Amino acid sequence: MTITTGPLLAPSVRAVRSLAGGEIETYLQMFPPRSPGTDWVTTRSSHEEVLHRLDQPPFENGKDSTHLMRMVGARLLLRSLETFEGETWR
Q1: Which of 25, 40, 69, 78 gets the highest tally of CB atoms within 10 A of its CB?
Q2: What pLDDT score does 10 carry?
Q3: In the chain, where does DSSP find H-type helix?
Q4: Residue 34: which pLDDT band, with cuts at 50, 70 and 90?
Q5: Is the distance from CB of 78 to CB of 70 less than 8 angstroms?
Q6: Over 80: is that where the pLDDT of 6 sits?
Q7: How far is residue 70's CA from residue 48's CA, in Å, rounded to a whole number?
Q8: Largest Cα–Cα distance of the chain, in whole Å?
Q9: Measured distance CA(72)–CA(64) in Å, rounded
Q10: Who's near 27: CB < 8 A, 6+ residues apart?
Q11: Mean pLDDT of the 71-82 span
């Protein structure tokens, strides 16, 4: 078996340059910013729906003791969030 060694090379780094003047405007026209979202459907999940989701893979990992502690923590967190005003979890 032959083993060949050589110097370790750092991964190539792309050059970064600043945009200036009209160049910025050109890119903003080509790629306009997205408008911020006003709603996220997951934040409207009920207490039970959140706990059910956390009780499924990949969150449920087969280790009973750690999973049980995570579920206790999730219940405490959700109970705490319910004390705030509003109709969603955000």
Answers
A1: 78
A2: 65
A3: 22-30, 47-54, 64-81
A4: confident
A5: no
A6: no
A7: 15
A8: 69
A9: 12
A10: 19
A11: 92
